């Protein structure tokens, strides 16, 4: 395990961001939202907090697979943003230079493996949080698919 990999894993000990990770996430959310300061695919998702009722901004890496856009939870099913999206029935705002109202639809477990593999190829910062390598076979990704929620990005229905 490299120093970088172990350092990132410590920042998210127990599947939750620690103090340093929260600060860095705020900075990354602003960077991802700008659109011009971030690589392609870096976005910020805004969703209403299920307990606080306030808008929560989370920096994520958007993956494109089969012509569709997806968001993956690198911290697994216990990530706070995942619970907020589920509580909001998928209603969210995607930001990358501009705001886009979207509906996030959870992908069935049986369909997640190729999306997860594509995600790991695009999001090197997420790799320490996955028990498989980005070059692993699809059957290996199938074994971890239940633990990593994937959301299809759809336009919001008025």
TrEMBL record:
Protein name, as recorded: Deazaflavin-dependent oxidoreductase (Nitroreductase family)
Source taxonomy: Bacteria, Bacillati, Actinomycetota, Actinomycetes, Micromonosporales
UniProt-listed InterPro entries: F420H2_quin_Rdtase, Split_barrel_FMN-bd
Pfam family, one: F420H2_quin_red
Native species: Micromonospora vinacea
């Amino acid at each position: 395990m490299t120093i970088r990999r172990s350092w990132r894993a410590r920042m998210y000990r127990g599947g939750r961001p620690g103090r340093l990770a929260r600060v860095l996430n705020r900075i990354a959310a602003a960077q991802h939202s700008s659109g011009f300061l971030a690589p392609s695919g870096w976005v910020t998702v805004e969703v209403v907090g299920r307990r606080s009722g306030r808008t929560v901004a989370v920096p994520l890496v958007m993956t494109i697979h089969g012509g569709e856009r997806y968001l993956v939870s690198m911290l697994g099913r216990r990530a706070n943003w995942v619970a907020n999206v589920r509580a909001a029935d998928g209603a969210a705002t995607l930001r990358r230079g501009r705001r886009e109202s979207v509906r996030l639809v959870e992908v069935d477990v049986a369909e997640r493996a190729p999306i997860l593999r594509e995600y790991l190829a695009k999001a090197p910062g997420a790799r320490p949080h996955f028990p498989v390598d980005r070059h692993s076979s699809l059957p290996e990704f199938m074994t971890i698919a239940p633990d990593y929620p994937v959301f299809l990005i759809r336009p919001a229905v008025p």
